[in-house]
Amino acid sequence: MLDVAIIGCGVVGAAAAYELSHYPLHTAIFEAENDVADCTTKANSAILHAGYDPEPGTRMARFNVEGNALTRQLAGELRVPFVGNGSLVVALSEEDLPVLRGLYERGQANGVPGLELLSGEEARRREPALAGEVCGALWAPTAGIISPWEMAIALADTAVVNGCEFHGGCAVTGIEREADGFRLHTTGGDFLARRVINAAGTHADAVNAFVAAPYFRIQPSKGQYYLLDKSQGELVGATVFQCPSAAGKGVLVSPTVHGNLIVGPDAIPAAGPDDVAVTAQGLSFVAGMARRSVPGFNLRESIRNFAGVRAISDRDDFIVEEAPGCPGFINLSGIKSPGLTSAPALAKEAVALLRKSGLVLQEREGFRLHPRPRPFRYAGARDRAAMAAENPRMGRVTCRCETVTEGEIVEAIHAPVPARSIDGVKRRVGSGMGRCQGGFCSPRIAAILARELNIPLTAVLQDGEGTEILTEELGHEYHRI
Fold this sequence. Notes:
Helix content: 25-40%
């Protein structure tokens, strides 16, 4: 019998698992995909929002500001890439200036520190690449950029080393209420749990409906992006937003923690909860809108287009509560932006709700953090030599673009939540994220996965189930690294 079952392992589910791992509970995460952070968490703007946008008094406002501080702390403790680069919301016409004033006043009410209203000239002194039409800006120094999937992985790894179970590729297909809790029907069998946290993202309304009367609906919204090469990464230092509208926070231009430049997103209705197809029309809109604030980026340096799906609900705020009429079933649902920023604060609230429901919580003795490994590419020459001397695989560079070694890849495959695919390795060590997008290293990583997992090359996955990259072996032998 599980004490708590967590459904979904994006950054919100991973944060809940991390928070619960501070207590000696029998906890398990059930993730339909075969890895952590394989849906919305891997495909978003990667922004740590300051907290000036949410309506004062809402859950979004509270958890945004709390989560900003908590995420900064966790990023340091878990060695997750983070840069406190600040953000600018720019006014592109005189009509936008009252919007900036309104955001400033919201931020003041929400307790966001350090906000400043700037003239267009002051904004361009900070960011010379801004368009000449910029006539004002809101500066938020507590905004930042982060690696969302590395944060989720670090949280999940720490939860697992402290006793939490991770069930990847294990979709919840139904839930029944029982006298002492819930019976979860999954593709990996049935599990009993006294309490449940629903962090299923774009599927959260369907999961809630397994056991409770439907009282919210997820309306997935898709956002499309350009990811530009590192040659464009220093075009702006801060994250540049446009004034928000009913459609969202607008198209942004921002550096990433890995040195690239990200441009996007739009906001259009998704065809379904897993619709991540990109369109020429959508990308053209993104590029045109982004050039209004930062005209100088070079789309010939684009190395990848992608889309993410937001879990927009038909309510105006985060849904963070026990499902009506269903004691012990906690919904963390409708977690749109600023969900990434808010995740650690949402997790603490979920634990408070579990305690209120009667779950006995006593601090665990010997809780251990599991920080991310230090990347080989950031080590000095002397440290690299020492790492290679201790483990010769650390001296074999497998991904040339990002200087990722075979030793790092092997560590990722044997991590607490192990990589089981080429993209799973990518999310942990950054292989395939460079200019060639895995053209050089993917076959080598496939061979390492086959060797370490003791599987044939034809069973190696690009990412989720059904994404085998080879269908047949030709000949009797192939080279193994």
